[in-house]
Every structure is written in C-alpha cells, then in structure tokens.
Description:
Family: Belongs to the glycosyl hydrolase 5 (cellulase A) family.
Number of helices: 12
Organism: Solanum pennellii
Structural class: alpha/beta
Signal peptide: 1-28
Domain Glycoside hydrolase family: 225-485
Oligomer: single chain
Protein name: Probable glucan 1,3-beta-glucosidase A
Amino acid sequence: xxxxxSKWVSAFLLCCWLIFSxxxxxxxxxxxxxxxxxxxxxWLVVEGWIKPSLFDDIPNxxxxxxxxxxxxxxxxxxxxxxxxxxxxxxxxDRDNPLEWETFKLWRIxxxxxxxxxxxxxxxxxxxDGDSVTATAESPSDSETFYLxxxxxxxxxIKLKSGTYIQASNDNVLTADxxxxxxxxxxxATFEMTFVAKLQGDYxxxxxxxxxxxxxxxxxxRNSFITVDDFDFLYRHGINTVRIPVGWxxxxxxxxxxxxxxxxxxxxxxxxxxxxxxxxKCIIDLxxxxxxxxxxxxxxxxDGTVNWQTSPEHISQTLDAIEFLASRYAVHxxxxxxxxxxxxxxxxxxxxxxxxxxxxxxxxxxxxxxxxYVIFCQRxxxxxxxxxxxxNIGSSNTVxxxxxxxLFDRYFDxxxxxxxxxxxxxxxxxxxxxxxxxxxPLVFVGEWVNEWNVTNGxxxxxxDFGRVxxxxxxxASFGWSYWTLKCEKxxxxxxxxxxxxxxxxxxxxxxxxxxxxxxxLLELACILSFMH
Length: 531
C-alpha cells in the first residue's frame, strides 16, 4: 500500500512539473498567463480619427499643418506646379494635379501659411514684382503667405506687404496683381482642393494655439480614460494596458513647442489605477522627434519622416526612454517599455534602428533587470525575422507585430471567409515560426476586429474575432487590442464587448492548464492502478 501511494505521489509530482513547464508564461502576469491587453490609443497621443471632436473648434480647422492642397487658377484653368517636385521654378500649366501639384501646409496662424513641396522645398517670393519659386530649403518671411478664403474654397494669396500673387498669361506666379481682387474669375483667385490631412498632437496644438490647446487637452486627458475603464477591463479579463506616449513627456513641465504638457500626470494616474486592479502597464513610445513614420500618431508636422536623419532626434528618443525607465522601473504595475512604435521600413534602415534598439535595451536594463523591452517590427516591406537575427538583448525581450486585415489593397475585396483563411495561412504560420525562433517573445501589440467586408453580420464579426483570438493567444508574449475607445465602433473595444461583436474567451493559459491538470491527474491515477 505504501509503495502504491509513493508511486501515485511521484506520478502526481511529475504531472505538476509537466503542467508548469508546458508553454510560456509572462513574468509579472498573475496566474501564470500571457498578456491579454488593450491599447489606450488616442489618449496621451492624439489621433483625430479616434476622437474627431477634439478638432471641432479650431478656426480654419481644415487647414492644419500637413494638410495637402492643390491650387488651380480660375482664369487659366491650370494647376500650380513645383517643377520636379521642388527646387526649381513654379509654373501654372498642369491640367491634372499629381505629386508636383500637391503642397503641404505649414500653419503659422489661421490665415498665414507656408507651402511645402513634395521634395521638401518651400514656395518663396522675394518681394513685390518677383516670381514665386520652389527653392527655399527652410521657411522664413519670404516663404510666408497670407491667405484670404471664401465659402467656395476660393483663395487669394498675398505677401506681407499686401501685394497679391497672380497667375500670369505666361503661366508663372508673380507678386504684381494691381489692387484688391474680388471673388470673380480673375488672375489672383485660385480654387483650393483638399487632398489629405493629418490630425495629431502637432496639428491640435498649433491649430488652437498654446492656451486653448492646453484647456482642450486637459479636459480630454481627464475624461477620455478614467479609473472606471480599468474596472471594465479587469471585469473582462484584461490583465495589461499598452499606453502610447509622446517623446515630449520627458520634458512635461515645459515641452518643446507646440506640444502641451500634462500627459505625465495622466500616465501616473494610469499606473495607480492599474495597480489597484492588478493590471500591468506597457509604456509605448508612440511618437518620436522628427517622426519615425510620417503618420499623425507620430506627431509629424507634415508627414515627413526625419527621425532617422538626425542624431539629435535619436538622442532625444533615448533620453525619453531613460526618463520613463527611471521613473517607472520600480513601479509594481510596470511590465515593459516599447522603445519605438512602428518605424517605417521605407525610411528607417536596420543600420539605424538596430543600434538604437540596443542602446534602448541597455538603458532599460540600467534601471530594471526584469522589465520587458519591446522592439516593434518595422511597418511596410519588412520581415519580423530581421529583429530575431539582430541579437538586440539577452533577457526579457519581445518583438511586437501589428496585424490588420486593412491598409492594403489586397484586403479590399476579400470575403469574410477569405479574411479568415488569410489569418490561418499567414498570421498563424508566422506566429508559430517566430515562437520557435529561440529569440524574443512574440507580441501581437495591435490588432482589431475590423475589416473591409461590407455589411458584415454580427455572426461574421464574432467569427473573425474568435479566429483572431485563437491565433493570437498562441503568441508567446500575448496580444493587445487597438483600441479601448474610438468613434469607429468596431475599433472600440468597450463597444465591441458590450454589443457582443467581440467575445473574449477565458485566458488560454488558464484554460489549457486546467485541461492539462485533468488529463495528467487521470494519467496519474492510471499509473497508480497499473502498479
């Protein structure tokens, strides 16, 4: 009898070892689990599509920094064109507007602007009687124009002296229109067409001006995410939040213009709320100086990507990482720090990115031996395996993948079943391969239960969400939904849960563990009776 009991105990202990050795758990996550997270997007880094009303009260609010416009002479019926995209003369001779005929606005005030060409030069005019060219590398008074606008998007352009620009019969722009033009068809009147816009932190702050922007952002930061949201996340099994921040948080009391301080207090609050609900925090450096991808969420002024071109920008980014690591390393709620969100593969080379990631890793390790250091995959034409081959750090490292069945023409016409097949064929196989790569853990740091399927039913969305969760649950670090709140319903995690479009399952680590317990206890009993 004693021998039988001894064998049963041995079998049980073996089973326990197997239970806790199978699969990977994330250090710091309660219950031997992986990350089940939600992004707090649009909170401390502004994205206008998430909450468009933030921009509602900006005067001339459709003419913000980075807005792309095309200008057509009403008399010549030709578009203004920067020859070769900039660096040369300006003509008014194009019938169809393309890249050379598209200009990015730099906003000085609600009626004063500078025009940047596709190649980066600025329109410039030395004074009365001179022609407009596209040869200035940086803007000053000669590159600053005063705009008058009517309700039909017709505009007049004048110099500081008051002289109006006109399209001459020679198809050039000259500062010599006599007198003051009306809104009829005359050489000093142009039709303005909007092509694209940006709505990020730069646009909001520069659009409102410092004082008004400070009031708008204070109200937003205090109300958009609150302690009640952490209660909601806790009740629905979310164990982590990924919190995007901008690089200016490192100088929160006096950030560089036009950025607005105050986000640090909100981040502190998030850590306190997270600790109260046993939720962990990932700090995600979402916006870097100069912009790492040209998108509004990187706080780009006009869509230009300059982060990688300046050692000063990279140094400022590392300073921000040091600030965040030193402040939060010992906080019980910190799980990890993501060094840079979505660097552009088209602009940021591995020769720049990998040394930056290595420096960032060492900075975090200076303050914490256990915090996870997260490296985001480059967006665009890049293979995440490139980061596994880079040997960036030795412990608690993670590669972040962003999975959307969107933003690519390939997905435009896929049916619901074809979208799901893509998940199995591409996402699942990639996660399996990376899990087996003997390197950093795998994190699906952004995904959403949305697609380009028109008129998808409730059941379609439930199936799409279920398959994504099944696949992303296998990622060795876990996943994070984008985003907690959004004007677009299916991007809104809270709306999706409350309306049953997204059905969260119990944590797979816990569920699989229970299954293994039952299975292996049965095995233990069989072994004991066999003897």
